[in-house]
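Please check this.
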Amino acid sequence: MKDFLKYIFGLLVLVIFGLTACQEKQIVEDPITPGAYGYTLASFTTDFTGTTIAEGDTITYTIKLSKMLDRALTFSLLQTEGTAGELDLVWAPVVIAPYSDSAVFTIIANFDNLPEVAETAKFEIGVFGLADKYLLDAATVNPVLNLTINNTNYAAGLTVALAWEETADDWDILMIDEAGAGTAYATDWTNWQGATAANPEIMFLDDFEPYWLIADGTYFVDIDPYVVATSVTDFNMSVGHPDGTVEFFTFTFDSAKADNGDYPITWAYSTLEIVKTGTSYVCSLLPEWTGAKTDYVSLNQRGNYTYLKNARN
């Protein structure tokens, strides 16, 4: 009887040891070994080389599967680092349909007409959906790009952009010719492209529309507090020159100093002076205005706006 019990005990030990060994093997074994099980391999080819692009440039990848699948695969872009925002790179997910084996993935550096510093973006192209990615061979190597995106200015003239943080406020930028600033100026503003309720507001000098073409001379860029609830506003103004250079100006507007009760509807404040000579533009920030309210002239434009010559609050 004792021998029988020893025999039974020995069998139980062997069974337990065998189950433990099988369990450990299942835990440590890689479920997908690259290239071992005939999974579909994705390859990526492109003519792009380097690490620098400019706004308006396009990068194209051709994606090829080693064999067709009976279901769709979706390829997308995943940005992991960089200063570029979601509007700086334009792309859309690409689907390789069932029983197809290729697709083209396109990335465009958005030309946004906003003068700005160069931006960076590090991103990867691949299949990132949890269900999709296990359909591809683990040997698939996703392309990773680490790019510098250089600003592209409007080539035919000067670009002026005004940005501010308070998104509920509506500031406009307008431009006026110095020749009409000190008289009973009865014609329109020289340029009001920057009066659109956008943030940033952007205007062009010598734009492609003949209406905005301007002669050599001195001009003022005015800020107009169209609908503003914020008492103190910090501005960033960027100026893009045709030669590719960008200038940056910062200033603050304090409504407490503004206009003795008429704020915010009827005053526009000169902020930037622009001297145009041919295709050359010299820009300078005007000093803060400290004069009396009588230092203005009426303008018969959009409800008799008033204009402060060389006046920046």
